[in-house]
Design brief:
CATH superfamily: K homology (KH) domain
Oligomer: single chain
Strand content: 15-25%
CATH topology: GMP Synthetase, Chain A, domain 3
Number of domains: 1
Largest sheet: 3 strands, mixed
Structural class: alpha+beta
Length: 120
């Protein structure tokens, strides 16, 4: 039961932060990023916010998110009723970039096979 509650809270935090980043934060460093997931500690003291940015500027996006963390945490406290509002930690999620790279490699291999078959 406790795990289900942390999962629900993580999903709610993800939705809220995605909307706050999109609508409330005017920092250009956090444009074009996607919140991909949230992990909340069992005691609700910490939350890892996973994000991705396809243009490769994830260091500056992380700086922008960390700069806005107080603002984000404050707004979360108003919209989510918890006894303890978690500290927010932002982590770059490279899985989307990695998946895109693998897809490119597969496309290159398929194209190479076609060229090889056409030469026969």
């Amino acid at each position: 039961m406790n795990f289900a509650r942390t999962d629900r809270i993580a999903q709610q935090i993800q939705r809220e932060i995605a909307e706050l980043v999109r609508l409330q934060i005017n920092d250009p460093r956090v444009r074009l990023l996607t919140i991909t997931g949230v992990e909340v500690a069992r005691d609700y003291s910490h939350a890892k916010i996973f994000f991705t940015r396809l243009d490769g500027k994830h260091e500056e996006a992380q700086q922008g998110l960390e700069h806005a963390s107080g603002f984000l945490r404050s707004h979360l406290a108003h919209s989510i009723k918890l006894r303890v509002m978690p500290q927010l930690h932002f982590v770059y999620d490279a899985s989307v970039e990695h998946g895109s790279h693998l897809s490119q490699l597969i496309d290159q291999a398929v194209a190479s096979d076609r060229e090889h078959d056409d030469k026969k």
